[in-house]
Amino acid sequence: MKKNAGVILLFIVLCAALIRFGGVGSKAASISAVYASTAALSLAAAAGYWFLIRKKNPWFVLLFSSVFVVNTGYLALSLSKTLDAALWANRLSYLGSVFLPLSMLMLILNTCRLKYGKYLPGALISVSTAVFLIAASPGILDIYYKEVSLSVINGSTVLEKVYGPLHCLYLFYLLSYLMATLAVIFHACANRNVDSAIHAVFMSAAVFVNIGVWLIEQLVRIDFELLSISYIISELFLLLLCLMIQRSEEAGNIQPPEQNLTEPAATAAAAPPDAAPDSPQEPDQPDARTPEEQLAYFAAQRASLTPTERIIYEFYLEGKSTKEIMAELNIKENTLKYHNKNIYSKLGVSSRKQLVMIASALKDAPNT
Predict the structure, then answer these.
(1) CATH of the domain at 83
(2) Do 237 and 273 fall within a single domain?
(3) What's the number of domains the chain is made of?
(4) Which of 106, 204, 216, 348 is the most buried (most CB within 10 A)?
(5) pLDDT digits (tens, 9 = 90+) for 297-331
């Protein structure tokens, strides 16, 4: 509970600070000061993730690093005194901007527990690297910017650019990631791979805030990168989502106090913590059904499995080991035990072996 309050407080404080320092339309406001604030806020958000989230995710590390690099690049550009320094700062901002949508997509894929090929991360990193090299080419080649020069607005340095033939590649790259991320969220919601509606809301908000800001920048000339602010808001939404998922997993280790356990279930719940997750567990009611009735009951009860339980069920049918399932879902052994107990109870089986046997019989049975 304290961690939830900490993240919510961090979210409110950072958003308030963004509003306070976001007066990009004010002549008195220094654009460099705003960039300095967003860089500091992105560093604070990274610190919040590090201290509040128990188990670190490499894609989250990439996300927070990318946002910090983007804002540091914007700050360095606004303070540049020479064209060469400005170009290097511009490259730094592109480095973060290119890898940020990649980290968001992978985070949402993992949050929705959607399967993807092992080649996908490597392929996406290769594409992102190629896009970055093209975006970093100004000053060396004229394929991204035909011409570039310095100008000063409100005391801050900006690049005046004439776009080259490959500049549209970066816009296409961003739009592709935004559309792919939204497609993942819609697909996960349609297939009930998202554990709750609030999770879907937070994921959608993290994406839509960037789409909205990007459209504003395309329609209105603003001598300030509004994405520097929207990126921080997006990572805060994902940070809150990560914390909610962490808390739901931790709650999975606690037996609900109001549950009325029958004797067999109570015996299973009292098993020692080091008991094997796949050890036999009795269903809540003695099974006096015929084989045909048991098949029908099993088939009907599959619809009652939660999204997470359904994923574990499918993993069992695929023959995945306990360690592989815990690694895929990023959960602890006790959490898997808890899900196993619920799955066995709902399906009316006493072990993983019986579950797989009945599921295989259902596949072979006619009209199932």
Answers:
(1) 1.20.1070
(2) no
(3) 2
(4) 106
(5) 888 888 888 888 888 988 888 888 888 888 888 78
Residue with tokens 């900490």: 6
Q: Write down the pLDDT at residue 222.
A: 61
Task: Supply the range of the domain harboring residue 235.
Answer: 2-251
State the pLDDT at residue 7: 47
**What CATH number is given to the structural domain containing 319?**
1.10.10.10
* 365: phi then psi, degrees, rounded to nearest 5: -75, 145
In a domain? residue 313: yes
Name the token pair of 261. Answer: 């356990």
Residues of the chain short of pLDDT 70, as ranges, are 1-29, 192-197, 199-200, 211-224, 226, 246, 248-289, 364-368
Domain boundary among 231, 251, 271: 251
HEC sequence for the chain: CHHHHHHHHHHHHHHHHHHHHCCCCCCCCCHHHHHHHHHHHHHHHHHHHHHHCCCCCHHHHHHHHHHHHHHHHHHHHHHCCCHHHHHHHHHHHHHHHHHHHHHHHHHHHHHCCCCCCCHHHHHHHHHHHHHHHHHCCECCECCCEEEEEEEEECCEEEEEEEECCCHHHHHHHHHHHHHHHHHHHHHHHHCCCCCCHHHHHHHHHHHHHHHHHHHHHHHCCCCCCCHHHHHHHHHHHHHHHHHHHHHHHHHCCCCCCCCCCCHHHHHHHCCCCCCCCCCCCCCCCCCCCCHHHHHHHHHHHHHHCCHHHHHHHHHHHHCCCHHHHHHHHCCCHHHHHHHHHHHHHHHCCCCHHHHHHHHHHHHHCCCC
Distance from C-alpha of 116 to C-alpha of 251, rounded to nearest angstrom: 28
Q: Are 147 and 237 contained in the same domain?
A: yes
Residue 138: phi, psi to the nearest 5?
A: -55, 135
State residue 256's pLDDT score: 38
